[in-house]
Amino acid sequence: MQNLFFLCLTIITCLSVFDSNNFIAQAVTSWSEIATLKAFKSSINPSSIKPGSCLASWNFTIDPCSFPRRTYFTCGLTCTPDSTHINQITLDPVGYTGTLTPLISKLTNLITLDLSENSFFGPIPSSLYSLPNLQTLTLRSNSFSGSIPPTIKSLISLQSLDLSHNSLSGSLPISLNYLSNLRRIDLSFNKLNGSIPELPPNLSELAIKANSLSGPLQKSTFQKANKLAVLELSENSLYGKLEPWLFQLPSLQQVDLANNRFNGIEIWKPANGRSSDLVAIDLGFNTIQGYAPANLSAYPTLSSLSIRYNLLRGTIPLEYGESKTLKRLFLDGNFLTGKPPAGLLVSGNIFSGSLGNNCLVGCPASSQLCKPAQKPSSVCKKAYNGKPST
């Protein structure tokens, strides 16, 4: 009888907890966090909250962390295992329009904030950068403006930062190098200017394409970047000579520096017999002068190389034709002379790219690799001070 009594008592208790009219009384989520969620939703234009969207399901007549969620809070957030705190906000990309409330800093247990591919505008609240547990910040493809403040260094747990495709301006804060847990940065397609500060030590991916960065690449910027694998800085105003140390960063795999103003390059073979993980290099559409760097053929995994539309002169290094790994080669739009290495034109060779729009001879028009046609001889003679370019 005693066991039956406790069983009935348990059933009654469970029924009272799951009674929809008692959710507020049974609320377990922090009240300050509920207030923050209300402010978050209130800062968004109601007309942009479409029926069926995540925010449309945020109905505060029940506790946000109640479970199971059958009708309300069906998506857009997750809670800690004990259902007392919000630890993730990930909105669906349906075109929400509005600003980001500064009260977001009240969600101190937040690990992930992802508002990507919506229409948020205005500055990113400075209070956001005080969240101690935030690991992933993704605001990609919105209309956020303003600068990235030095206080970003307070995001001590941050591992991934994606603010790409916004309207951010100003220079990159020096304090970025304080973020020792940061693995990935994507600030592409903004209006950022100035030089690149020292990078944090555990960074593996850096993408700042299509901004207004300027100046040469400094060795001090990369002095701690021993884990950097992907470097994408195309479509900026970077200039100067590309020095050997850059291509010898120990973990580097992909380099994209196309569409800048680099005017020279020096390549050494991998240092002290060390291997290299370099797979792809794109230096196209710069003003690089001199000879095509033959030492690139010594990089054992290099499969894609583009130095197209620069000011290269002389012959194509024979080593390019002897490479066992190179499969894509774009050298078109330069002033290269002589005959292409025979290895590049071997019948049946699995190879793509272009050697066209140069001053080459013996590059058969029937070969796809030799298209488009070479420059007129008059242009080549002028480039070589009236001397034949052969």
Automatic annotation (TrEMBL):
Q: Which UniProt keywords apply?
A: Cell wall, Disulfide bond, Leucine-rich repeat, Membrane, Plant defense, Repeat, Secreted, Signal, Transmembrane, Transmembrane helix
**GO CC aspect terms:** membrane
User: Is the Repeat keyword given for this protein?
Assistant: yes
Q: Which SUPFAM superfamilies match?
A: L domain-like
Q: How does it sit in the membrane?
A: Peripheral membrane protein
Per UniProt, residues of the Leucine-rich repeat-containing N-terminal plant-type domain are: 32-67
| Entry-linked SMART domains | LRR_TYP (SM00369)
Q: What does the UniProt entry say about where the protein is found?
A: Membrane; Secreted, Cell wall
Question: Which InterPro entries does the record match to this protein?
Answer: Leu-rich_rpt, Leu-rich_rpt_typical-subtyp, LRR_dom_sf, LRR_N_plant-typ, RLP29
Query: What is the first-listed, main subcellular location in coarse terms?
Result: membrane
Region forming the signal peptide = 1-16
One of its GO biological process terms is: defense response
Q: Which domain of life is it from?
A: Eukaryota
Q: Which PANTHER family match?
A: LEUCINE-RICH REPEAT (LRR) FAMILY PROTEIN (PTHR48009), LRR RECEPTOR-LIKE SERINE_THREONINE-PROTEIN KINASE GSO1 (PTHR48009:SF9)
The record's family statement is: Belongs to the polygalacturonase-inhibiting protein family.
Q: Protein name, please?
A: Leucine-rich repeat-containing N-terminal plant-type domain-containing protein
